[in-house]
Structures are given as structure tokens and as C-alpha cells.
Amino acid sequence: MKAAVIQEIGSPLAIEDIPDPEPGLTDLILKVGACGICGTDLHMSENKDPNVGWRMMHPGCVMGHEFAGEVMEVGREAKQHWHPGDRVTALPWISCGECPACQAGLGYRCPNVISRATADLPGAYAEYCRVGARETIRLPDQVSFREGALVEPLAVGFNAVRRANLKPGDRVLIVGAGPVGLTVAMWCRFFGAQHIVVSDLVPARAQRSMALGATAIIDASVGDVPEQAAAAAGGPPRVVFDCVGVPGSLQLVIDYAAPNAQIVIVGLCMAGDHLFPTKALVKELDISFAYVYREEDFATVVHLLAEGRIDTAPMVSDKVDLTAFPTAFEDLKQPNLQIKVMLEVD
Questions:
Q1: What CATH number corresponds to the domain at position 279?
Q2: 146 vs 118, 149, 198, CA distance in Å?
Q3: Are residues 134 and 11 in the same domain?
Q4: What global pTM score does this model have?
């Protein structure tokens, strides 16, 4: 099969022929229908520092963990529940299903987890990929492959907003209007926040959030962001989300936050940083970090998509085929107005 492969860290991906995946006893093989480009993959393809707290990529790796597709092959012990032709999405790992972490719905913390984008489990920037039957969720007919590929980033935003303990009527400031910021805005609206202010250095990116639930946007390059946010929200935001994840963004949201506010860090910063914790202490801020999601969150998101209760159309800004994929991937490493670029495999 063809796949977009890392040849060297820091170099563009290359389309190569690699072996087709084979199912284990409890695995499924999917024909990839759609796979979104995630900012984490952009970072991982460049990272050469083993000390950032994130696993390293290696030549030959295939990334891609936001995907949906059609079942083509079924492992012998999975045939009771899965069949060729089933339309599905899946969690981006394969875990044991028996340890305390797996039983708690936190398969990514399983001591025997097989992570995607490894030699054992290539990702979905490819024609086909292998998934675990236990980690797979069936897509209703009304949920497209494109929507199915958005389930993973939607679950990330869902978990972040849950960790904020959002209250109906809350005032919220979201710093960063990339895909993560947009999903956070959508879930803040879904869970009843009254004022949702989105700040970005590129106003055109922030503007997209208005279609997903934001009530106001701020050009972060002009004026005082906390003052503008308070004016737009009728008072200082109680919750501030860092959806940027670059050196300095954690200090920035600490500076933005009002006393006694809650901060949720969602953006993934893969570099060293420097901050002044005294500012957070004096303000008595509650700071939490949101990583991924619980396994049941995937099913919740699929259910809400099927019911038409969330609209993801504004999130996808472009689609490409596998031939054009390496160029699209590299383009996203530079400042641009793209939000979610989707690989769609014929």
C-alpha cells in the first residue's frame, strides 16, 4: 500500500510503498476514508529533543491518528461483532483491555499499550491501517468519514471543557483559534457558557469560531486582551483555555487570567519554557492540564454527531489526496489560515 512516511526528522514526508497491514486475532484492517492532520504530528515530525516528554519519531514511521474508514478484514476472534463493510472510527492505540487503566477507560495509560505511529502500529496517513476491535466504534449511516475523522479532536476538546468544570452562564476566554481552540469553543457553547471570547493573532482564524459557538473574537496583536475580553464578556472570564502550546503561552494565560480564575492547558508545547509562578500564586489560580480523553468520550461524540447536535462543517478548511498530502503537511508548518486539512483516500 501507499503511505506518507517519515524519511528523516525535520524533512518532508514521502509517499512510499510499504507492506499492507495484517490483522491479529482481535484486530480489524480499515481502508482509510479520511484522516485529519493534527498539530501534534506537525510537532512530532520536527522534534529532535528526547527530553520534551514525548516519544520520538523515527525514519519509516507513518503518522495519522484522526481517522475513519471501512472495515476490509476481520481477525478471527473479532468476527462475532465486526464485518467487512462496517464504517468505523477508532481510538489511536491498542491496549490490553484488562489492566486498571483500561478498565477505567484510559487505555493510553495501559502499560502494554501499542501507540500509533510506531513500527508496530503505523498510522492512517495511508491507504489502510490496523485497529484493535476493542478500540473501534461503529459510525451510523448519517455520520460521514470526514465527520468520523473529527471524532478524535472533538474528544480532545470535550475532555478539556469537562476538566474546566464549566457552569451554565460562565464567561470563557479561549487563547488560540486553531482546531483545538475551535473544538473547545464548540463544547463551551454546548455545555452552556454564556460568553465565549476567542483570541488569536490572526483575526481571520478567530472568525471561524463564531460559527462554532464563540460570542466575540479578539485580535491579540492589538490592544489589551484581558480588557477586551472583559468588555466583550461583561466581566473577567472565569475560565481561560490555552489552546496554543508554544513557549510563553502558559505565562500569557496566567497574565490574562483574573484572580481566582481557572486555567486549562490544552495546547501541546514541545519545548522548554520559562514562567513566573508567583503571578499564579498571588492570583490563586487553578491550573489543570488536559491531555486526551476517556474511551467512552469517542462514543459520546459519535452519538452527538449522529443526532445532529454538533456541526463540524466549519472545522474543515481543505481536503487533499495522498499524492498531494506531503505538500499540504509541510504547508501547515508555516503561518496560514487553514484550520483542519483532511486527507481523503479514494
A1: 3.40.50.720
A2: 24, 5, 25
A3: yes
A4: 0.95
Cell of 245: 502550546
Largest CA distance in the chain: 62
Q: Is residue 143 located within the same domain as residue 10? A: yes
Mean pLDDT by 10 residues, the chain (346 residues): 95 97 98 97 88 81 98 97 98 96 96 92 98 98 98 98 95 97 97 97 92 96 95 97 95 97 94 92 98 94 97 94 97 91 94
Characterize the bridge pairing of strands 66-74 and 87-90: antiparallel
The answer to whether residue 302 is domain-embedded is no
Amino acid, res. 310 = I
**DSSP secondary structure code for residue 30 in this structure:** E
Cα 14 to Cα 8: distance, rounded to the nearest angstrom:
10
Residue 94 and residue 14 in one domain:
yes
Looking at the fold, whether 113 and 170 belong to one and the same domain comes out as: no
Residue 326: which of 63, 3, 13 has the closest Cα?
Answer: 13
CA 280 to centroid of chain Cα atoms: 27
**Would you list the DSSP string of 205-219?**
HHHHGGGGT-SEEEE
Which residue(s) pair with 130 in the sheet?
A: 29
Output phi, psi for 12, to 5 deg: -60, 150
CA distance 29 to 222: 50
